[in-house]
Amino acid sequence: MHALPEDHTGVRMRRLRRERHLTQRDLCDLTGIAYSTYTKTEQGVIAATPYVIAAFARGLQLEVSTVVGQPYVDELRADQLDILIRPIREALDVYDLGADPAVQPRRLEELNADAEALLVAVRAGDIKQAASNVAGLIEEGTTAAHALNSTEGWLTLASFYRTAYDVATKLGFSDLAQLSLARMDWASQRGSSAVLGGMYQYLRALTYLREGKFAIGQRLVARGLSTLQQADASREREVVIGQLHLGGAVMAGRAHDHDEALSHLEEAERIAGTTGEAITVHYLTFGPTNVQVHRVSVLAELDQYGEAVEATAGLTIPEDWPKSRTSHHYAEVARAQMWTNRLDESFQNLLKARKVAPQQAKYHPTVRETYASLEAAHRRLPESFLSYGSWLSTATGQVA
Q1: Which has the least CB within 10 A, 105, 290, 306, 327?
Q2: How is the chain split among helix, strand and coil, in percent rounded to 5?
Q3: 99 occurs within a structural domain
């Protein structure tokens, strides 16, 4: 019996297909998914890959979040994270009302320090802390930006909006993530930052990546690269350009465009050779390590799971790397190992993903999909494996 029946995307696909009175063969003809792949996905024999999920969603004209079941409402409520979403929505809604006379903002230096602290909290995997603080800081930052009408004030507000995007993305609220990005773009334009404009296009492209709309995502990557040509030459600009190429590599990989994916990777690798590790530049974690990590991801997106596992050989994650990024990497490795039948190693990497950033891992679709497939593949499950499933689907208690 599945420990996570409600999180088994194959079960959800079957329900959505039947609601539309489609046979499995009809579904495959409509979406272009191979019949054997689809039937095994419905049964839970193999994991639902991002490519299959995207094709399914496009074919049935659904949101990807509907197919994968995000946001995970019961878990969010149990962890008291759901109550933090509405204040963020409300804070985003007053962006154009000018300075609020009921709000007395602190000095800009203090707000900048808070903006930095939010970025650090997200990268450390402390989603609840960031979600708890960001709404109030957006309200304070909105008043400060309107009152000062300075470049630094608008860019500080843009940073708060970016954290709202990060929180919404990690908790599975895609509509809130898109709204946060729109506000970030609005503020960065008033701050006249071409670099932030390019980064906005990168983050916007990622939202389309998650929705399986790869052609639009690739166009946004191209627009971001074009926007950055307007910025003065600097290490900061090169870091964002490099990160755009990494995003483009994953986008092309998920679209199964092998040559385009590797072309983006090669360009990112070239740029990383000049920037070196740039972990804190806009907290994009760009550098040679991130290029290696993305190589693993891209190979997995291309369904080259054996090569993806091989690409992890000799890859060492620096101790000062953000926990959120490290956890995501372990989840990607676990997925590749699961597909190559290295089941025990795969579960060990799921454990690593949880240990490094438990709040993030709990709401990470790749963690959930990989766990469900590992569960289906095991005849006898060790107690530690079953307890992992209980942790993912817990209906009571606080975030670990």
Answers
A1: 306
A2: 70, 0, 25
A3: yes
- Do 295 and 241 belong together in one domain? yes
| Each residue's pLDDT expressed in tens, for the chain with a length of 400 residues | 344 445 578 999 999 999 999 999 999 999 999 999 999 999 888 888 888 999 999 999 999 989 988 898 888 888 889 899 999 999 999 999 999 999 999 999 999 999 999 999 999 999 999 999 999 999 999 999 999 999 999 999 999 999 999 999 999 999 999 999 999 999 999 999 999 999 999 999 999 998 889 999 999 999 999 999 999 999 999 999 999 999 999 999 999 999 999 999 999 999 999 999 999 999 999 999 999 999 999 999 999 999 999 999 989 999 999 999 999 999 999 999 999 999 999 999 999 999 999 999 999 999 988 988 888 776 556 678 878 888 887 533 333 3
* Same domain membership, residue 88 and residue 53: no
Q: CATH no. for residue 51?
A: 1.10.260.40
Question: Domain check: are 148 and 104 in the same one?
Answer: yes
In a domain, 55, yes or no: yes
CA distance 178 to 186: 12
Instruction: For residues 22 and 81, state if they share a domain.
Output: no
Last residue of a domain, one of 164, 192, 220: 192
Residue 172 Ramachandran class (φ > 0 left, ψ -120 to 50 alpha, else beta)? left
Bridge partners for 278 per DSSP: 286
Q: Kindly provide the b/e burial profile for residues 146-184, where b requires at least 16 CB atoms within 10 angstroms of the residue's own CB.
A: beeeeeebbbbbbbbbbbbbbbbbbbbbbebbbbbbebb
Among 357, 203, 170, 173, which residue's Cα sits nearest to residue 284?
Answer: 203
95 and 163 belong to one structural domain: yes
The structure tokens 């995003």 sit at: 247
Question: In sequence order, what are the residues at sequence separation of 6 or more whose Cβ sits closer than 8 angstroms to the Cβ of residue 13?
Answer: 38, 41, 42, 48, 56, 67
Residue 84 lies in a domain: yes
Q: The dihedral of CA 262, 334, 79, 395: what is its sign?
A: positive
Domain range for 55: 1-69
* Radius of gyration for the chain, computed over Cα atoms and rounded to the nearest angstrom: 21
Structural domain contains residue 400:
no
pTM of the model: 0.89
> Is residue 223 located within the same domain as residue 287?
yes
